Each structure stands twice: as structure tokens, then as C-alpha cells.
Input
Amino acid sequence: SGEGKDDAGYMDMSVCELKHPPPQLCPMPEGLSSQQVVRRLILSSIVQSESSYLDSLKRILQEYQKPLLETQNLILNPKKVRQIFYRLPEIHQCHSMFQIALACRVAEWDHSEKIGDLFVASFSKSMVLNVYSDYINNFTNAMALIKKACLSKPAFLDFLKKKQASSPDRITLYGLMVKPIQRFPQFILLLQDMLKNTPKSHADRLPLQLALTELETLAEKLNEQKRVADQEAEIQQLAHSVGDRTFNKLLNPEQRQLIQCELLTEIVYGDNGQILKSKERKVFLLNDTLICANINLKGPPDISSLVPVGPKYSVKWFAPLLQTQVVEVGQDSLQSRDSVVTARRLSSISSTSGKVFLGPPRLYQELEELQHDLAVVEEVSLLVGTLNGTYQNLNTTVSQDWCLALLRLIRLKEEEIQNANKCRLRLSVPGKPDKSGRPVSIMVVFNTPSPLSKISWVNRLHLAKIAQRQENAPGWECAEEDGKTKAPFSFPLLTCKLPVFSSKTLKHLGPSIHSPSQSSLLGFCSASTSLPQGYLWAAGGGRVSTHGQVEIFSLNRATPRLVKTIPLRAPVLCLEYMKEPCPSTEEEAEKAQNAAKIGNIICVGLQDGSIHVYSSVDTAVQCLLTLVNPDSSPVLCLKHLLSFLFAGLNNGKVAVYHRKSGERLLDQESCRLVSLGSEPVCSLLTLEDAVWASCANHVTVIQVPSLHTQSFEAHPDPGCSVTHMVRSGGGVWMAFTLGSSLHLFHTETLEPLQEVNISTRTAHLTPGQVCVSSLLICQGLLWVGTGQGVILTFPVPTLEGIPKITGKGMTSLNAHCGPVDFLMSTSSTLASDLLRRDSILNSREEGATPPREQKPKRLLLQYRLHSTCQLPGKLLTAQPDQGNPRAPPDSLEHCPEDGSIYEVSEDPDVWVRGRSVELGREGEARRNKVTSTAIFSGGRGFRRIGQTASADTSSDSSENTLLVWQLPLALSQ
Output
């Protein structure tokens, strides 16, 4: 309808792509750079969109609120009118003041070119947050009042229709009132474009970043309030639709929160896999209950066109979450024939009962037939090998190709089954007990709108169950008294805790690193319930040990599993994962092709001054290379940037190694030393074109590849060394050896921007004894590990602004007994081909079964061979030899009869010998992205803060322990 679009016409495209640039506010001066021109265009868009927004607010107040409050109308009670338009006058006042200030900046633009500080001054005030919060929290109530008035007051409905009809753009009242909810996301897009076109040396650069921070923080708070209001409205709508008091108690918002709800299609299958019936249901996932409801969408169409009318529900069933299971059949283990037979047997059992819940059994039956045919062809191949004669079309080569073709068809059938499962959500829910009182489970099958929806449901069901565990109920303590506004899955959930390294062999837990990899054996459903795919390398040893060790854990399951142990001659002090460089030129690509395939590597820094290089995909985990710095000084930290590896040394120097063009490994001879001081180099941090290195209380910025340096003081106390640095957007947070304060610095001007004392943010830290032992930024959270084993998190902006801390943060009630030795994030993206929805061999409806007469009686094992002359033996043909005038009679040159058993079909999906087939439509998959993230912390033991130690909540305080937190899948399209 166009009601939700920005009037400036700018939001969906960059400034450079504008077909119709907004009118210039003043003549364009000559001699402007391209960036200055673009900045003026963006300023013009800001002015025009703000003017349009103010006009919309004015229309609401002048054309709707004012007439409804006039005494001669009295269509509605004035009290209800004020409730509908609550806080809109104050919002209009805020933006009227902003427009006046904006006009002043436009007038002096050619002299100052600054606008970022204006946004900070206008929208960082608490009044702005308060009025917008009140408006958003009241929005659902306002829409309900409008809907109720439309039903009970025909004059009011007629008033809305006339106002819409007389407006030039035909926007409804709802379309106007939703604009305040959209305003700050629009501002953010405009400022992001302005920042992209602002040079780093520009005076407006830092103000723009701070403005982006303020707007993102404001938008996040408003989004959270809107999310809570929408969820409460959904639960109220469900409660009002059902008159059962017992059920309404179940929906008490103080005890239960809505995690996810969506329209899904319930499917019932027939004996042959055909769809008997399907019906849309609304499925609600609460924190401890799953509810399935019927939908009644009937409503007056004239009202629905003016304001959204919520549906009415009737609950079909509800089940405790812990008794609900996701069931996947024939998907994750189709590699073995036994699993296929099991799936077939399950389908048969379902068929005999008269109800088929496991999906189309036709697919499993066809897969079993292919397995049978493969066994027969394998026997035929053995018999062909015993032939005395040699024939071109009947020999071991051909029979082996038949086997390969069948294997290919089997794999395609397995993939077709997986494709059918990608949008099919099977749930086992408890039913009524049978006559003997035994529990009965019912299988319910839903079709989800997309594979993303399916994987989201599986993941959130999995995490909602984890949220009910003892260690997560509660798992975090909020310093702010707003814990009720957050759903349980919005907190990182403690998934598991596991011992690592025997305390008898290694008394100190060192660093860790994530080596991402894709596992083709991990099924579509399992990928949403396991940790990020790949391997965790955990190191140990410490400076007081005489030896070191690395333990490698597989993460392709819900709980990490130890798969390899690497003993080392010296303690491990640091790890770094280094990606294989992408060749930038054809010459480099050719060199890379000729070089040995090494791929991504993992560098291990030891106390004896050496760096061991391992292949991240080498199952044997053999050392590929050992680098030794000239001074043999202990390697305290490692970071890579482009093709360079930086090693921070104990003697105050940074060793820089280079990976030569076309080569996979680092060059020992390329080592260069950058001297920073006499104190150890404790921390390294990479930015776009530089590496930050800390030495004592100073930080040195090393430019790449010139290695030019610039140093600045990070702390006034020379005895307070920088120990940790993490970067987000335009800022770097630093922690120190002394004190409990974190300092934020600007990445471009190197100026200090904020200081936060973490000991004042929670009651669980002893003041004066707090030190920061680890630091991490991941998905909008700054994680702080302390020497007391307590972990804190603070929300920080995720865009290109400054990662300032604005909230009071949260404290994890799951802690270590000793210092938090490290915090590490692991992240992986689900393989894009798993998100492809369409079936490869079958483009028809998933549940449909073709008539039996259309099924081919035999499988065509064909290749597209343009010549059979390379096959040995005489021709085997059904026709007499007619010869070839262009070739001798004994020639094996190709003729049509030779390839008759090969070239039967031109179907592009048929396997073609010698090249792979492009499968499916990759475009859809590339647009979708699913990211799995988990946080690992390492330290001594495990304890629950604020609880008496018990066998379930604590462990041996001297045992090295990993705590693993899992975050919800991040879904994007």
C-alpha cells in the first residue's frame, strides 16, 4: 500500500543510486569533491524526510485528533481520543525543535559541514526516549481502541473512510501512526551513508559516530519495548479468544513469555504419501508450553483495510515443552542401508495404522529400490569381469560407471528427502493416556513457510528447554530492574560445562581458538541444535610449567567431544587462526595452484620462543613449520593481518613474518622486529590497515605493510600495563593489570572516550580486589571476565558508531572458582545449500505422488559421451556394421549406435561423466544466512553465585573447566 515507505524515497537505495535526487536547498558551489557532493545530497534527504515526517505528525493532530475533540462532533469520548493519540503532541514538539536547529546547520553548511553533534544534542535527551517509549507501549492499545470504535461507532468508521479518501496519498490513519516507529531506523540508514562519505580527518567524523551510537541505542530500547508489547498483545489476543479460566491462568504474562509464534500448515498424509488434508494453525512457543490454535480470520473487510484486525483463536491442543520432541526420520543418517530400512519400516507401521505422520513414504521406498538395484548392478559388474571377450559397450569400465551412476542417484534421492524435510516440522506431543493408563505420544506434522522458519523453530525449541535447566533459571542477574521485559532466550544460555586438561598434568589453562569447518554429515535439523560447526583448540601449560598441550574438541554436536591431544615441549601462551589468502592476480592464482595445498593454518606460540604452524584441516595434526624469533623470547600473543603474522614477544618487541605471494606457509627469513619498549608485549589487535600492540601503559599503532609506528599513552600510571584490547565499530576497549576500570579509545583520533568501573556494576565483586582477566565483544555484548571468576556483560552498539556502554549490564550467576583465563567466541554459518528449498529431482509439490503409470519401469543410466573411442574392445551394437565412409571399418570412432545406451536423455539433471552437475537454484540459498554463535570461558572449577554449593551446581575448584554459552541462531535474508 506504500503506507510503511519513507516519503523521501531514499531509504531503499544509496544516495548514488537515486533516480530523482531531492531538491537542493541552496545552489551547489563549484569545486566540491565527490564526497562533498554526496554529503550535500544526504543532507538534502535528511531535510526532506524530516519535513515529510513532521507533515505526517501534523496531519494526525490537525486532521484526526483536533476534529474528534471538537464539541460539535463528539463521535468518541474525548478521554479515548487522547488515549489513541497519546504522546503524539510531544513527539511533534521534539521534531519541530530539531527542524529549527537543522535549518540553522543547513544555512552554515558550506562553512562547517557538521551535523553529527546536532543529532546527539537532539536525541540523547531522556525526554525523547520517554515520549517515544510511551507512544510505542501505547500503540497496540491505540489500535485496539480504533478497532473497537469502528465496530461500535459507525460514524467513526465513516469519519476514517472520508479522511482517507480525501487525502492525496490515500494513507490510512494506521499508516500515519506507524511512522514514529519507523523514524529512527530511517535516521540510522541516513547517518550510515553520511559516515561512509565522511573522510577520517573530517571534523564531523567522530560526532557522526557518536550520533549513530545514540540513535542505535535509542532504537534498540524502543525495539525491545515494541517486541514486548507485541508479545503481550499476542498472548492477550489468545487469552481473550478462549474462555477457559484454567487456560487463561496458563497465559499469565508474569509467569510466561512468548518466544515465537507463526502461521504453520498442519499436514495429514495418506497411505501412499498423498496429502489427505492441510489447514493453517497458529503455533505459539512460550517459555515452557507449546500451543496450537485454530484461526478465525473472518472480520469486516472495511475495518481491516483501515486498521489491522487480529484473528480469533480456538486452542486445539497445548503441551508442556519438556514433553515435546522434534522428530526427524531418515534425514541425519541416510548413509547406511540399515537406517533406510528403519525409516521404511516406520513408514509401513504408520501406513497400517491408517495415519501417516512421517512424511511421504514414497521417497523412502524409492530410496530402498535404488539401494536394491545398486546391489544387483554390483553383482552384474562382477559377472562382466568374467567375460572372455572384450566389448566396447560391455566391459568393467561401463559396469563400474553404472555403479557410480546409481550411487549418484541414491545421493540425489537422499538430498530430495532432506529437501522435503527442510520445511517439514515433526513434533511428538503427549496425548491422552490409553485405557490402561499408559502415556501416548501423538505425531504432528507442520509445513513451515521456509527452511529458515523450520530451523528457527527447531533452534528455539532446543534453547527454550535449555533455559529451563537449573543453571539457567535464572542464569543472569540484571543490574537494572527490567528482567521481566526480556524473554529467557534473549540471555546467553549455559549449554554445558566440561573438564579440560588434567590438573595433575597441567595446572594452568591457556588460550583457545576456533577452527571453523563445515560437516556434511551434520543434518539440517542437527545444525540448529549443535554448537557452531568446527573444532575448538584449547591450550594449556602456563609460564610455570615445563611442557604444554593442545586439546582439540569437535563442536559438531550439543556437547564438545575431545578428538585429539597434541603434547608440546613448552607451555602454550597464544593461538591464532590464519585464513588461506585469496590470490589477487592471475599470476598469484597460478602459483597457488602449483603450490602444495595447505589451506587455513593455526599458529601456536610457545614459551621457548617458537611458533608451530599446523593445518586446520589435517586430521593427523602434524606440524608443518616451526618459526623461531631471533631472540628466542617467549611468544605472548599472535595476530595476523593480510599475509602478515605479528608475534608479541616478552622482551618488548613484535616479530613480523610474511607469507610470500603464491606460497601457503610463512617465511622464516622474512622476520622483521619492531621494538616497542622493555616491557612484555601483552596484547595485539588488528584493524583494517594497522595492528595495535600494547607495551606497558602505551599502545603502538603499527601500519601495514610499511611497519611505521605511532604510540600513545593508554593509562597515566606507568605500572598499569594494557593486558587486553577488543574492538567494535569505531572504538577499542582496553583492560589493565591494575584496577577494575575499562577505557574506551577512538580508533581514528586515539582519544579516550569513556571509562567504566566494573566493580560498581554488580554486588558480587569485592571492591578493591577486582581485576579484568579476559575481554570479548560478540553480537552486541561486551563480555568481561574477572580475577574472581565472575563474568559480566554490557550491551554495546554493533554498527559503525562508538561502542559506548550505556546500560548497567548483567552478571552471570554461573562462574568459575578462579580467574576467567579466557573468553572466546565461536561462530559458523550454515552451508547455503542446506537452505535451498526446492527438490533437485522433483519440482512438483512435496506431498504429491505421481500416478503409478507415470513412474518409469526402469532407471536410465546415461552419460553424455561425445565419443566412445576411448573405450576398449569391439563395438557391441544391435544393428549390423554398416561402416563409416570417413573411417576405416575397424575404427572405434563414435557413431549413433555406439552411444545408444548412454545418450538417451537430454535432462540436465542427469549425471554427466567427467563434470559435475549444477544442482538446484543457488540464488535463493545465497540470499539466506544462518549464523550459529557460542561463547566459551575457561577457568578453574564451576560455581553458582549466591547459592550454597551442591553436587549439581559446583565442581572441583582445582579442575580446569570450560563453560559454554549458546546464543539463538541469527537469521537473515
User: Anything to note?
Assistant: The longest helix spans residues 205-241.
